[in-house]
């Protein structure tokens, strides 16, 4: 299937960078968000990321400018979807919001368009049933920061067609990513389940006073070769994201051991959302450096 136009729903950390990845790969890309100020912030951040890449000699000014020119921003889902061949939804991790978005996309997007969700927890069958095209729905799950991380999990549900999977795998490759196929819906797929096991143990270790947060992070980096420790990673991804993912998992499984850890809940409720709010497990200055 030929893809020319991509629509990304949501202009948060994931949606904005997924949009930039698509534009850099040569696709005419639109990022849609209901919040004008979030779109403006995304535009400014992406432009400054491109400036950095140019300054570091990673990209020519021309390539950066062409990619930015291929990137459009809108508050109208209908306008963004009108000529979309492929849609990637990266809105908040709440099922009822996602289902409403998929129902609206089903009406507004051309019948050939594939509708993918970037959700890391909710299998796409949950949103496919809000559309009249379940065979054209799957998960296309990127990792934070999406401009850098190579992995994309492509997850099928029972009725996803092979054509949808093949097109999505090919799309990810064309974006310079390394897609992996997840054959069955399971909350957290593969990567977040691996990461969750490490994070849960890190939370238990700090709760029991076995080692400090900083020392647990240092151990993950210097003993296991991870680029970031589990607490640093929670701050990067967002405490709200960690919290909502566990809530969504709990809602799916009903298993109380899937509920967010009380310390994560406390940070979430206090509005300490990680790097983006200046405080999470660590405190950050305006440049995003640890204080
Ligand atoms: N956005 C975009 N680019 C970023 C970035 C960000 N937030 N942070 C760093 N980068 C870029 C830098 O600009 C730099 O690019 P360059 O090579 O062109 O100069 C490159 O990444 C390397 O950055 P740094 O040298 O500053 O720092 P590091 O070498 O430590 O790399 C990192 C930063 C890539 C974030 C690395 O620490 C890392 O890989 N961390 C682990 C990230 C991870 O595990 N992500 C998965 C999270 S789970 C998830 O997303 C699932 C979801 O469902 C919750």
Automatic annotation (TrEMBL):
Pathway: Lipid metabolism; butanoate metabolism. One of its GO terms (molecular function) is 3-hydroxybutyryl-CoA dehydrogenase activity. It holds the Pfam family 3HCDH_N. Residues 188-284 form the 3-hydroxyacyl-CoA dehydrogenase C-terminal domain. Its EC number is 1.1.1.157. Keywords: Oxidoreductase. Coiled coil: none annotated. The keyword Oxidoreductase applies. Residues 6-184 form the 3-hydroxyacyl-CoA dehydrogenase NAD binding domain. Belongs to the 3-hydroxyacyl-CoA dehydrogenase family. This is 3-hydroxybutyryl-CoA dehydrogenase. It comes from Paeniglutamicibacter psychrophenolicus.
């Amino acid at each position: 299937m030929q893809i020319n136009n991509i629509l990304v729903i949501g202009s948060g950390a994931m949606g904005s960078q997924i949009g930039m990845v698509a534009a850099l790969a040569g696709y005419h890309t639109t990022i849609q968000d209901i919040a004008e100020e979030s779109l403006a912030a995304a535009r400014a951040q992406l432009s400054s990321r491109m400036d950095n890449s140019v300054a570091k000699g990673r990209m020519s000014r021309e390539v950066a400018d062409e990619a930015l020119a291929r990137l459009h921003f809108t508050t109208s889902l209908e306008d963004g979807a009108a000529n979309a061949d492929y849609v990637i939804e990266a809105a908040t991790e709440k099922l009822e919001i996602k289902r409403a978005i998929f129902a609206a996309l089903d009406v507004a997007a051309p019948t050939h368009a594939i509708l993918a969700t970037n959700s890391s927890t909710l299998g796409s069958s949950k949103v496919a049933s809000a559309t009249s095209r379940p065979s054209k729905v799957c998960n296309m799950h990127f990792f934070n920061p999406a401009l850098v991380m190579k992995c994309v999990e492509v997850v099928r549900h029972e009725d996803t067609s092979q054509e949808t999977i093949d097109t999505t795998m090919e799309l990810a490759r064309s974006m310079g990513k390394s897609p992996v196929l997840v054959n069955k819906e399971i909350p957290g797929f593969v990567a977040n389940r691996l990461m969750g096991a490490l994070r849960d143990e890190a939370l238990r270790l700090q709760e029991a006073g076995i080692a400090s947060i900083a020392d647990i992070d240092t151990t993950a980096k210097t003993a296991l070769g991870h680029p970031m420790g589990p607490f640093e990673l929670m701050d990067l991804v967002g405490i709200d994201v960690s919290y909502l993912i566990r809530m969504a998992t709990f809602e799916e499984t009903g298993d109380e051991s899937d509920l967010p850890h009380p310390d994560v809940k406390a940070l979430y409720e206090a509005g300490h959302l990680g790097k983006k709010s200046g405080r999470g497990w660590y405190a950050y200055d305006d440049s995003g450096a640890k204080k």
